Amino acid sequence: MIVGSSILCSAQNPATKSDEVWWFNFASAPLIFDRPHNKSDETYFQVGLRNRSSKYVTDYDFGCVEQGGKEINISKRFWGGSITDGGYRPKSFFPPFGNKDTDKDEAYAKGLCKHSKIAVVWVVFDGGGYWAAPGIVRVKRSF
């Protein structure tokens, strides 16, 4: 059973052309999809996840979102990653689906979210605390 949730929120998409964007970023999300900014970013992949919080990220979930004007519907939630060695440090930039076949990340994301865009919907911080996308608590995690 898939449970959807409709919410109102603002979004941020860091790409320059809307047809290039296969992800969605919640404006308040501490972990976002992004492109490399400078030489300190890993450059062997085109799109990564950026920890823009001041805390280490240890776990995160993805979700499939559909945008209709200002309304956002989260139709699916699934595991993104768990980092056991302390987490990703603040400002870190890393491949969204692991280090293998990063040139296939877009196809992988589109396969998970066929008629929607992928987004980070849940983030857990080292030492406790979390961030949740608005409405995500009503969407059961799929495996």
Describe this structure in words.
The chain has 143 residues and is mainly beta. 6% of the residues lie in helices and 39% in strands. The strands form three sheets. Strands 1, 6, 7, 9, 10 and 11 form a six-stranded mixed sheet that branches. It has a three-stranded antiparallel sheet with strand order 4-5-8, with no helix packed on it. Strand 9 (117-125) and strand 10 form a beta hairpin. The chain is globular. It starts with a strand and ends with a strand. 32% of the residues are buried.
Multimer state: single chain
**So what's the overall shape?**
globular
Rg, rounded, reads 14 Å
Q: Could you list the spans in which at least 5 consecutive residues all have pLDDT below 50?
A: 1-19
How is this fold's topology laid out?
Blueprint: E1 5-8, E2 11-12, E3 25-26, E4 31-34, E5 48-51, E6 57-68, E7 71-82, E8 93-94, H1 105-112, E9 117-125, E10 130-132, E11 141-142
